[in-house]
Design goal:
The protein is an alpha/beta fold. 54% of the residues lie in helices and 9% in strands. The N and C termini lie far apart (59 Å). InterPro entries: P-loop_NTPase (IPR027417), Sulfotransferase (IPR005331).
């Protein structure tokens, strides 16, 4: 703007400029209301087919979409904290991801697809504007897929170094078997995820979701998305673990291994069986 303008001319310019910006914002909102009629959060539990779901949703909502990536959020947290305890930071980073979710919601992002826990703070503030959706997988299969994906994945923030039998005896394996409790209970990260009360909280949390899909019924899931969100999506197949690895299919586990995995997954099996 020219420095030669009088004060009144400057005021007129700002009023007209503000009016134009306001009209553009109003136009953008109308376009978004038509393209993305319902704001929503897709809670992406690892190894439940969520990468394919998230990608399909974000493509459909390209005008207003956001995500929270596990690798990038962990690296940001690691750089900020300057810590070296990987196992501790894998838990502590959960709070950062919840904060990132809240930021996206306060920014009025219409489509949010994120590796993030259900947030009581988000639900209390945004339940009237946003719907919450997720997709689940049979817990033993999910556990085995998670191990196969992470084992020996050098350089990844969540690499699992232990061989299968050794891993089953670790605290991380116990936490992995309670992933649904961690994601849907809304409890603090320090909570006992294997307690009956925590399992009940996760089941209650899922009852607040508009859509709870199952990986073995993608047609039902996409139909529910269309009904609840007004979106037609086509879900592909992403992030399949490369190559079948010995001992990681349920049919290939020994009786002792299967019993151990089922015991580890007992919290998630309870949520799976009770989920809507």
């Amino acid at each position: 703007m020219s420095s030669d303008l009088s004060q009144s001319q400057r005021a007129d310019w700002h009023r007209q400029s503000g009016g134009a910006v306001g009209r553009l914002r109003s136009l953008r909102e109308r376009v978004l209301d038509r393209a993305i009629p319902q704001r929503f959060v897709f809670h992406h539990v690892p190894k439940c087919g969520g990468t394919s779901v998230g990608r399909a949703l974000r493509k459909r909502c390209i005008l207003s979409q956001g995500t929270v990536l596990p690798e990038a959020s962990y690296r940001a947290f690691e750089a900020f904290m300057g810590q070296g305890d990987t196992e501790r930071m894998l838990v502590d980073v959960l709070d950062l991801r919840e904060q990132m979710l809240l930021y996206l919601m306060f920014a009025d992002t219409r489509c949010i697809s994120a590796h993030v826990r259900f947030s009581e703070a988000a639900y209390e503030r945004f339940a009237e504007q946003y719907k919450f959706i997720t997709i689940l997988r049979e817990p033993v299969s999910r556990f085995l897929s998670h191990y196969a994906w992470s084992h020996g994945r050098s350089g990844a923030h969540a690499e699992i170094r232990e061989e299968f039998d050794a891993f089953l005896e670790t605290p991380r394996a116990a936490r992995l078997g309670a992933s649904y409790v961690e994601f849907f209970s809304g409890l603090p990260k320090e909570a006992d995820l294997r307690a009956d009360s925590s399992i009940d909280k996760a089941i209650t949390g899922l009852s607040r979701f508009a859509v709870v899909g199952r990986l073995d019924d993608q047609k039902g899931f996409t139909n529910a998305i269309r009904r609840e969100l007004g979106l037609r999506v086509r879900i592909g197949h992403e992030n399949r673990a490369g190559g079948a690895r010995p001992g990681l299919r349920v049919s290939e586990l020994s009786e002792a291994q299967l019993a151990r995995v089922r015991a580890l997954c007992a919290p998630d099996l309870a949520v799976w069986e009770a989920a809507p």
